[in-house]
Amino acid sequence: MKIKIATSQFSISSKIEDNKKRILAQIDEAKYLNANLIHFPEGSLSGYAGVDFESFVGFNWDELTKSTNDIINKVKESGIWVVIGSAHRLENHKPHNCLYIIDNTGQIVDRYDKMFCAGTNQENTEDLLHFSPGDHFSTFSLNGIKCGVLICHEYRYPELYREYKKKGVEIMFHSYHAGNMTPTRQGNMEKEVGEKFFTINNGRTIPEITMPSTMISYAANNYMWISCSNTSAAESCWASMIVRPDGVVVGRLDKNKDGILITEIDTDKEYYDSTKYWRDRAMNGIFHSGTIVNDERSKNRHEI
Questions:
Q1: Does the chain have fewer CB atoms within 10 Å around its N or its C terminus?
Q2: 226, 172 in Cβ contact below 8 A?
Q3: CA atoms of 50 and 186, how far apart (whole Å)
Q4: How many angstroms separate the CA atoms of 43 and 68, rounded?
Q5: pLDDT at 42
């Protein structure tokens, strides 16, 4: 099956109206380029609490609701799917850090809520200071292709990718917000890496080094396409990109610049996959390839 996707990148801010205008413009651009779906970063409409704005105290939820409806109306006009990052208000708890999955008729077919929000077990730092974690996976089918979604910090949990693989997902839409860092935070993050290691790593901060490389390994280990959408707000750690199932990056935008990346995916095309014969066994707890032999010298592990 074939599908054409647009991977978004723009300078997300605390201003919902500005975010909305950029989102609407990129939907138009994706439609013009015949994309079936456009994939936006984490917090792309609401802004990202704790980074783009201090907290949800005094947050304009009515404006966010209106802007979301404006985007839904645009989707109805354009006829393309949208995966968009936002915040979802709850009754008596901190909101969810979410992705709305909107089909080409403007229906919200599911909402994914970030399950692993960054922060300590005290739940009063980073994401957990501002958000309530979710409790479910989200999949959807587009042109006969099963898709899944995750958000930023969840790249640290390979178990999530394995679970999506078990569900038959062929394309992952992983939304990030690794940007809008102050010079002070940028400097502190670079110190964590250490200047002497800059030249032997693909980056100067932990996110810049680990996020793209993990996406490459997850694509190859799980044999799936991964669209990685990130903010371009300076300083952004890395640019939006897409990885094919053999771990090869097939497209990347320029860091700190607004744009969309168009990729045509053909899930019937075969790529190199060295683990295809044994991956299912590993996922089911059988931790070897081939046939185990019954041999006394194999059993004796204490002698040469």
A1: C
A2: yes
A3: 15
A4: 12
A5: 98
Residue 196's pLDDT band, with cuts at 50, 70 and 90, is: very high
Provide the b/e sequence for 182-219 (b: ≥16 CB within 10 Å): eeeeeeebbeebeeeeeeeeebbbebbbbbbbbbbebb
Which residues contact residue 298 at a Cβ distance below 8 angstroms, ignoring those fewer than 6 apart? none
Amino acid letter, residue 180: N
- 239 residue type, one letter: A
Q: Which residues contact 58 (CB under 8 A, 6 or more apart)?
A: none
User: Which amino acid makes up residue 213?
Assistant: S
Extract the tokens encoding 18: 């500005």
Residue matched to tokens 């996406």: 215
Q: Is 212 left (phi over 0), alpha (psi -120 to 50) or beta?
A: alpha
Structure tokens at 245: 């199932």
Nearest to 82, CA basis, from 110, 49, 113, 60: 110
pTM: 0.97
C-beta separation of 95 from 89 below 8 A: yes
* Residues in CB range of 102: below 8 A, 6 or more apart: 71, 72, 75, 81, 82, 83, 84, 108, 109
Q: Which domains does the chain have, with CATH numbers?
A: 2-299 (3.60.110.10)
Residue 166 main-chain phi, psi, to 5 deg:
-60, -30
For residue 138, give both structure tokens.
């989200």
